[in-house]
């Protein structure tokens, strides 16, 4: 493939999409947790009733990811990023107007469509298609900025929920999507399409590309290791306060340590951005898996010294911060960029399903053996994921 020189527009376009992804995750993903206290107080619905909507939206997003991937391969990734923010604003408006639990579910199903076509998967597939080998640096920059989504969404939700109630807060998020996310996405897509690398504009993927990829062991190793990493993280963050307090840490310390996980994700991405030319993608992936194992081991012994929960937060945050970066990069390097959208879309099913099911699994484990059962299960999951990263490296050498 012949490459044209990188243009200034590429850099600006990537930063624009980074802002768009920050808005997307803040408005369509973290908004539920950010408004949960207000929602529970004002709606009268239980946590389970409220959480059913976001859970269904995540599962719908997983089901739609392969479809979005195929659209990216056909050159429509930019359209998804440009137009789905408007659908997302509609979903938020439906939630804001909800008068019944069924109405609430409908709003989240609309957001599930948006999650399936306007978040990281589509953005990274679009960048990979447009930038080729330059996509790794672009993906790092996008995740670096979007890592602040929760840090922005939680305080915004708290302030808006207190001042305007949950309905007013959701309307505010909808307006922000229309005013900020939609324009920056459209601008970024236009610039990237104009400055795309030569040879990246074909809209046809040879038939059988996905089937051939799925016959390779690397495909299933990628699905397994990254799927288990996301399951581990989702399980931990769902029960993080319970787990931290079980070590003997006071509430204030537990809250502070939990708040360090997000910044640690960004810190991990900053380190990767600074050293990206000195490390291989598979090497980083192995370190990510090892970091998660060490994090879980640290949390298991934190009862001896509760301050170790801060070490856990740093290791876990930095590790999971790299997971979202490395999966598309490793996928492109091991399975190729041809048909990347469809391949990446199918690969996303296991991580997304793992994230959706982890809280349910955690609830069952807690009923069986309280915090210890969750911790040991999470350690086993992290350990298996790490072993799969080692096999992934061996598979590439054999390949």
From TrEMBL:
<dbReference type="InterPro" id="IPR036259">
    <property type="entry name" value="MFS_trans_sf"/>
</dbReference>
<feature type="transmembrane region" description="Helical">
    <location>
        <begin position="80"/>
        <end position="98"/>
    </location>
</feature>
<protein>
    <recommendedName>
        <fullName>Major facilitator superfamily (MFS) profile domain-containing protein</fullName>
    </recommendedName>
</protein>
<dbReference type="GO" id="GO:0022857">
    <property type="term" value="F:transmembrane transporter activity"/>
</dbReference>
<dbReference type="Pfam" id="PF07690">
    <property type="entry name" value="MFS_1"/>
</dbReference>
<feature type="domain" description="Major facilitator superfamily (MFS) profile">
    <location>
        <begin position="13"/>
        <end position="397"/>
    </location>
</feature>
<keyword id="KW-1133">Transmembrane helix</keyword>
<feature type="transmembrane region" description="Helical">
    <location>
        <begin position="284"/>
        <end position="302"/>
    </location>
</feature>
<feature type="transmembrane region" description="Helical">
    <location>
        <begin position="250"/>
        <end position="272"/>
    </location>
</feature>
<feature type="transmembrane region" description="Helical">
    <location>
        <begin position="342"/>
        <end position="367"/>
    </location>
</feature>
<feature type="transmembrane region" description="Helical">
    <location>
        <begin position="12"/>
        <end position="37"/>
    </location>
</feature>
<keyword id="KW-0472">Membrane</keyword>
<feature type="transmembrane region" description="Helical">
    <location>
        <begin position="373"/>
        <end position="392"/>
    </location>
</feature>
<feature type="transmembrane region" description="Helical">
    <location>
        <begin position="169"/>
        <end position="190"/>
    </location>
</feature>
<feature type="transmembrane region" description="Helical">
    <location>
        <begin position="308"/>
        <end position="330"/>
    </location>
</feature>
<feature type="transmembrane region" description="Helical">
    <location>
        <begin position="139"/>
        <end position="157"/>
    </location>
</feature>
<dbReference type="InterPro" id="IPR020846">
    <property type="entry name" value="MFS_dom"/>
</dbReference>
<feature type="transmembrane region" description="Helical">
    <location>
        <begin position="104"/>
        <end position="127"/>
    </location>
</feature>
<keyword id="KW-0812">Transmembrane</keyword>
<feature type="transmembrane region" description="Helical">
    <location>
        <begin position="218"/>
        <end position="244"/>
    </location>
</feature>
<dbReference type="InterPro" id="IPR011701">
    <property type="entry name" value="MFS"/>
</dbReference>
<feature type="transmembrane region" description="Helical">
    <location>
        <begin position="49"/>
        <end position="68"/>
    </location>
</feature>
